[in-house]
Amino acid sequence: MGLSFRKTCIITIEELRKIGLMPPQNRLKRGPVVLIECPEEIPCNICVDACPFNAINMERITSIPKVDWDKCVGCGVCVTSCPGLAIFVVDVSREDTAFVTVPYEFLPRPKPGEKVIILGRDGRSLGQGVVKAVFEQNKTLAVKIEVPKEIAFEVKGIRVVKTSG
Ligand code: SF4
Ligand code: SF4
Q1: In the 8-state DSSP scheme, what is residue 19?
Q2: Between residues 3 and 71, the one the model is more confident about
Q3: With a 6 A CB cut-off, is 57 part of the ligand 2 pocket?
Q4: Residue 23 in contact with residue 35, Cβ under 8 Å?
Q5: Where are the domains of the chain?
Q6: Does residue 9 surpass a pLDDT of 70?
Q7: How many CB atoms lie within 10 A of CB 49?
Q8: What residue owns the CA closest to ligand 2's atom 2?
Q9: Mean pLDDT to the nearest integer, 61-66
Q10: For ligand 2, is residue 21 a contact (CB within 6 Å)?
């Protein structure tokens, strides 16, 4: 497909757009929506079955997932289902701030209200975010974080900051 992530191992927003996995602007304005970063055409379709709203589909088990943007309600259930930790939910519908839901499988567990380090595609810190909600499914947490709007699509993980007390 000629995408540069094959060399860098880091996919870009432009590449996600090319393969149809970047939510369209009119959908982003309406609220939280899934962001699937799975370009590799691997034999996996767990997210298809995980979505309670049938918003993810695939032609074949090795196809890139396709999202029905109108069916996705941004619930985050699929975030915890992906063995590759490749699914996120973004909400950039507000003017002043953004929310991103990321998968998390480490300790300590983040708690609502805590500040955490937010990590970008290359694993480096992008600054701090605030945990707004946490839910667990399949032994994986889905952690919703409030982040600066300009980096919403770059947030791919968190690191919990150990605080005293
Ligand atoms: S966020 Fe919820 S509705 Fe959207 S694709 Fe994932 S499971 Fe389905
Ligand atoms: S569950 Fe994850 S790795 Fe499997 S197809 Fe879906 S997004 Fe890709």
Answers
A1: T
A2: 71
A3: no
A4: yes
A5: 5-160
A6: no
A7: 11
A8: 82
A9: 96
A10: no
